[in-house]
Each structure stands twice: as structure tokens, then as C-alpha cells.
């Protein structure tokens, strides 16, 4: 019997009956001294960077490429003519010659693709943010444990040796004394994505059903299908999930030593302002996280400083990084470098690291060979929690109502860093002729990290966003 036809027949029957399609599990072929054959699910820009890195690793082969967009697939196939090509990731996952996959799809595909891959016996390197909604991240952890798979999340700064030096300085040496609060930043200028009068026509070379996968089939009014999916909650997670996950992960790692899985209270606000485009994720976003001991805030903006400026607005610390405010000064961290200052602003120590490189991918391959997931620098569970801060931040924005100065001011009395951030945001949006009452602000949301659910007032509305509605045939399975 034709194996591919048989799978497709079964898949159609499963979709019709609501049953879950699962792949046959296989044991890992790639051991210590064997060649590791890697398949790439998505052939966009980020995946291309991964292809280059893995291709240059000894004992690793770029063996398969997959993308429902013919033009993206053909473009990467020119660089890797010996690699097998697929439009449907399920066909790639049936290939017993593939040991591991790299998933760099739209965010809404990350978890389902990873789960299917692990069910098929593949190890997984999945790009950040791990999940599009919190519940599906939990299922992906369960899949990694159930199928005994190596699963690394792409927060590559975790593989920078500098991180160990920072943690030693802040926590063992207590170089700046006790950490009192944390400010996280992501200020990076972007452009509007356009707003069409009629829905975007999908190119004939795109298998749109596969491209959508778990997402809802909604008309698209932006100008481009690819990349700008980030700014639509149907397929992306906004700037919070795109870059916020990196800087929040850095803070979790170095400020909290990963001891705080998820915050217990969240208040968030922001809006998509000034552009008038088709996006629905915020281009200004500000959030408070109650971590129990170290109050943490994040400020995010994709707007310029206003007027004729092409630069980001003013802010304390690095544009993409974090500040640990301590008794004896402050530490400012960002990708590839960091600096410690005393209370008088004098530089007392600098840190330099590996801002990109290949260390994260090398760590993944080393663990594929050793079969020791405990040596992963961003194990699936660690990536889930860092992504979770972003998911909760986005939920706070989405359940928000009209901005309330009184509610924001009440928190400012408790958390001065929040008050400073609100003042900055008021000046910032004002430079674009936007008033604060054009933004949204959530109530203080209570979250139980152990139960993975919101409690108290507004819980019903917020809990409804912990899991999305999946299209038939592309449901993320519950895994126990």
C-alpha cells in the first residue's frame, strides 16, 4: 500500500471524526558518533540562519526542507540541493531518515509542530516564543517528557558563557548588594504594516490551509502575508512574544535565577496607536509583574520618539535588555554585554559575551547525541516559563479596558518603577498626539502559577485566553 496515500486517507478520516492523528514513534537513530540528519520546518529568514549554522557543524546534515510557501521552499532548496523538500510537515515527519527538526514557523504553529515531531520520534529545536497560548506550552512539555525527546527552545542568550559570570557577580559575590527591583526594555522602531480595503489575496504558490494550521481562517487586511503575521494575535504574539521573550528570559535567568516560574499578579496596558494599520497587537505595551520579592516592569515600544525623529524614545538602560536595581547600584544587561554601576553612576565592571554565534545550536546537537536533556541550556520547560510571562502580558492587554489614571496611580504608590514607566509612556505617546485614555489598562490580575490559571475578579475573561480555539484537523492534543 502507498504509505503517503494511506496516511492522508487516515488523516482525512480522523479529521472527519474528530479523532487525533498520531505518528508512529521511533527511537533515536543519532547516537554519539553517527551523522545527525536535520529537517527544517519553515524556510523563512530565521530558518535560513539556522540552516547555515547546522550545515557548518561537523556530523550534521541539512537533510530536509519544508514550507507550504513554494517560493520560500524553492529559495532555500537552491542552497541545499541534496535536501528532500516537502510542503506538508507531516510528510517530513514520516521520514525515518530525519533525526531532529528545527521549527521556525509562525508562532501559532510552534507547539503543534513540536508535538507532532516528538510523537514521530524526532528531537526538536523550536524557536521562541515556545507557545502561542499558555495551555499548548504545557502540552508540549508533556510531550517531551512522555516521548523522551530532546527539546530546546531558541532563546540563544542562554548559551552565552557570560550569563554564568553575571549570576556569580550578582548573587554569589553580591557585587551590588541585594536586588530590589527590575526594569525590562524592548524599544525598537518598526513600520506600519498597511491597511487594505479588501482582503489580501493569497498567492497560488501558498498552501494556505497548511500555512494557517491551528489558526482561524480570517481575512487578512495587511499588505504582506509573511513576517507581518507577528502583529496579528491570530498567528503571532506581538513584540512581547517576538523580542520581549528574549529580554524577559534574560531577567528570569540572571535576576531571578529561574526561581520564579510565573508571576502571581499582572497589570498591563498599551495600545496600537499612531499608525492606523491592520495590526491588532500593541505597538506600545507596559506591564507590571509581581514576583513575590522583586517587582518587575517591562516597557515596550515600536514607535519613534516622535516628530521628525527616527530613533526610539528615551528610556533608562539598554533599548533591548534589563536593569537590576540593587542596594549598591545597578546592573544593565543586554545581549552580548553588560555593565555594573555604583550608586554614583560610576562604571565598576563590564561583561562581554557571545551575542549570537552557534553555541545554542551546538548545545542542542550535543544533547541529541548524549540523550541527556538535563544539559540543555533552554530545556522546553524553561522556555515555557519565559514564554509564559509574554503570554500573560498579552492577556493583560487583551482584557484591558480604557486606561485609568487612578488605577495606574494606585499601583505607582506600591511600585515606583511602574510610576516612572507610566510617566515615560505618557510623554512618549503624547509625542505622537495620543492621549493615555486612547490606550487600554487591565485590572490587577491574580494568577496561580501552580494551577496555571487566573483567580479572582476578571478571571473568567483572562482564563478564556489561556487556550485558543483550534481549526479542525489542527488541534493541539491534550497530553498526559
TrEMBL record:
Region forming the signal peptide: none
**What are the record keywords, sorted?**
Oxidoreductase
Q: Give the Pfam families listed for this entry.
A: GFO_IDH_MocA
The enzyme's E.C. designation: 1.1.1.18
Q: Which residues form the Gfo/Idh/MocA-like oxidoreductase N-terminal domain?
A: 36-154
| Entries under InterPro entries matching the protein | Gfo/Idh/MocA-like_OxRdtase_N, Gfo/Idh/MocA_oxidrdct_glycsds, NAD(P)-bd_dom_sf, TAT_signal
Single annotated GO MF: nucleotide binding
Keyword RNA-binding on this protein? no
Name of the featured protein: Inositol 2-dehydrogenase
Q: Which organism is it from?
A: Aureliella helgolandensis
In the UniProt record, the gene name given for this protein reads: iolG_18
Amino acid at each position: 500500500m502507498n504509505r503517503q496515500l494511506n496516511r492522508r486517507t487516515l488523516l482525512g478520516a480522523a479529521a472527519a471524526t474528530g479523532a487525533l492523528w498520531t505518528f508512529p514513534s521511533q527511537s533515536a537513530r543519532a547516537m554519539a558518533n553517527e551523522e545527525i540528519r536535520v529537517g527544517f520546518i519553515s524556510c523563512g529568514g530565521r530558518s535560513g540562519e539556522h540552516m547555515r549554522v547546522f550545515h557548518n557543524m561537523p556530523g550534521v546534515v541539512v537533510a530536509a526542507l519544508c514550507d507550504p510557501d513554494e517560493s520560500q521552499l524553492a529559495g532555500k532548496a537552491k542552497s541545499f540541493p541534496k535536501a528532500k523538500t516537502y510542503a506538508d510537515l507531516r510528510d517530513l515527519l514520516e521520514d525515518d531518515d530525519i533525526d531532529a527538526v528545527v521549527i521556525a514557523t509562525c508562532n501559532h504553529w510552534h507547539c503543534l509542530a513540536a508535538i507532532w515531531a516528538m510523537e514521530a520520534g524526532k528531537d526538536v529545536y523550536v524557536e521562541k516564543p515556545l507557545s502561542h497560548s499558555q495551555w499548548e506550552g504545557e502540552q508540549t512539555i508533556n510531550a517531551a517528557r512522555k516521548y523522551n525527546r530532546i527539546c530546546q527552545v531558541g532563546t540563544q542568550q542562554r548559551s552565552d558563557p557570560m550569563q554564568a559570570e553575571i549570576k556569580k557577580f550578582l548573587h554569589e559575590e553580591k557585587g551590588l548588594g541585594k536586588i530590589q527591583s527590575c526594569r525590562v526594555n524592548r524599544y525598537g522602531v518598526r513600520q506600519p504594516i498597511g491597511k487594505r480595503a479588501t482582503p489580501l489575496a493569497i498567492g497560488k504558490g501558498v498552501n494556505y490551509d497548511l500555512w494557517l494550521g491551528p489558526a482561524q481562517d480570517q481575512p487578512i487586511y495587511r499588505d504582506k502575508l509573511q513576517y507581518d503575521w507577528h502583529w496579528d494575535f491570530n498567528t503571532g504574539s506581538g513584540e512581547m512574544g517576538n523580542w520581549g521573550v528574549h529580554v524577559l528570559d534574560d531577567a528570569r535567568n540572571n535576576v531571578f535565577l529561574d526561581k520564579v516560574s510565573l508571576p502571581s499578579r499582572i497589570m498591563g496596558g498599551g495600545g496600537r496607536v499612531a499608525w492606523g494599520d491592520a495590526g491588532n497587537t500593541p505597538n506600545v505595551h507596559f506591564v507590571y509583574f509581581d514576583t513575590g520579592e522583586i517587582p518587575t516592569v517591562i516597557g515596550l515600544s515600536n514607535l519613534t520618539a516622535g516628530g521628525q525623529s527616527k530613533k526610539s524614545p528615551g528610556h533608562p538602560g539598554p533599548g533591548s535588555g534589563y536593569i537590576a536595581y540593587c542596594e549598591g547600584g545597578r546592573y544593565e544587561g543586554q545581549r552580548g554585554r553588560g555593565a555594573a554601576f555604583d550608586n554614583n553612576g560610576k562604571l565598576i565592571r563590564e561583561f562581554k559575551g557571545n551575542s549570537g554565534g552557534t553555541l545554542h545550536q551546538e548545545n542542542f546537537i550535543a544533547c541529541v547525541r548524549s540523550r541527556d536533556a538535563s544539559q540543555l541550556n533552554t530545556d522546553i520547560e524553561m522556555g515555557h516559563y519565559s514564554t509564559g510571562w509574554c503570554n500573560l502580558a498579552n492577556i493583560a492587554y487583551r482584557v484591558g479596558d480604557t486606561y485609568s489614571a487612578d488605577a495606574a496611580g494606585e499601583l505607582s504608590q506600591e511600585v515606583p518603577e511602574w510610576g516612572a514607566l507610566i510617566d515615560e509612556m505618557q510623554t512618549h505617546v503624547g509625542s505622537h498626539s495620543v492621549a493615555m485614555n486612547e490606550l487600554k489598562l487591565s485590572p490587577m490580575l491574580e494568577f496561580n502559577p501552580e494551577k496555571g490559571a487566573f483567580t479572582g475578579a476578571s478571571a473568567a475573561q483572562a482564563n478564556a485566553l489561556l487556550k485558543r480555539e483550534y481549526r479542525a484537523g489542527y488541534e493541539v492534543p491534550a497530553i498526559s
